[in-house]
Amino acid sequence: MTSETELAPAVASILEAARERAGDVDAQLAVDAQSLPDAIAGAEADGRVPVIAEVKPTSPTADGTRDDDPVELAQAMVDGGATAISVLTEPSHFGGSPAALTRVREAVDVPVLRKDFVVREDQLDVVEADLLLLIVRFVDDLEALITATRERGFQPLVEVHDRAELETALEAGADIIGVNNRDLGRLEVDLETFESVAPHVPDDVTVIAESGISSPADVQRMREAGADALLVGSAIMDHAGGDSDVTENTQQLVDAGATDT
Ligand SMILES: O=P(O)(O)OC[C@@H](O)[C@@H](O)c1c[nH]c2ccccc12
């Protein structure tokens, strides 16, 4: 695991809060998960770019907060053609909650990703979801946590930021990998991150481009670099835009492949 001195102050404080957050030790969850690879194949089959749209009320890098109902946001994203929904459950820096995820998962029929900073096994049992994010940089024993995640029925989405982390993820058995274009040290986004890591991902692994995708041109760029799907929060939530149309924002990105196919 990384030294905290290399992390942006906001990220160090997120991680500290995550370590202190209690998990639910009463019961080990047994989730009946919807397959993300199947949902991606379904989108491809009808000409939609596979977009995982993120319900992210705010973030350390956002220009504001949207306090719309998470269920309405998620439904608007699905109406715009989203292949899956990501819901932040981190409460102290992203305005998320496990309850919001539960409500969203009941309301939509696409796979739902739990987006949080899970660092221990007991934290897996807080809330059901189809996919669960594990961030290589923050997890001590990745293989054990991947196993624990799968034991409960979740599909682990394993996040990396460089080639060394990709190797760690592959060695631990990850089969869905997200490459985060945002550097957790400086919080800066660089789409070249995905372009440099993606060519080293084996073909049988699903690879997702995460963060900083804000236009149809960015979508095309990530698809050309090999992205099976894209994870997009800010450009869809449009925090500064206040009440901008989430369905339209999603659709613009979902349709970005139309001319190529
Ligand atoms: O809002 P963006 O730039 O479209 O990014 C979405 C998503 O990739 C980002 O929220 C994210 C990627 N990895 C994370 C880990 C924790 C919290 C958030 C994230």
Strand order of the largest sheet: 1-2-3-4-5-6-7-8
Quote the average pLDDT: 94
CATH topology: TIM Barrel
- What gyration radius follows from the Cα positions, in whole Å? 17 Å
Q: Based on CA inertia axes, which overall geometry fits?
A: globular
State the helical fraction.
Answer: 25-40%
Bound molecules: indole-3-glycerol phosphate
The number of strands is 8
Continuous helix count: 11
Tell me about the largest β-sheet.
8 strands, parallel, barrel
What is the CATH class designation? Answer: Alpha Beta
Number of discrete domains: 1
Look at the helices and sheets and give the structural class.
alpha/beta
CATH superfamily: Aldolase class I
Tell me what the CATH architecture is: Alpha-Beta Barrel
Query: What is the rounded distance between the termini?
Result: 42 Å
The proportion of strand residues reads: 5-15%
> What are the segments in which pLDDT stays under 50 over at least 5 consecutive residues?
none
Helix and strand element order = HHEHEHHEEHEHEHEHEHH
Domain Indole-3-glycerol phosphate synthase: 12-241
Pfam families: IGPS (PF00218)
Keywords: Amino-acid biosynthesis, Aromatic amino acid biosynthesis, Decarboxylase, Lyase, Tryptophan biosynthesis
Enzyme class: lyase
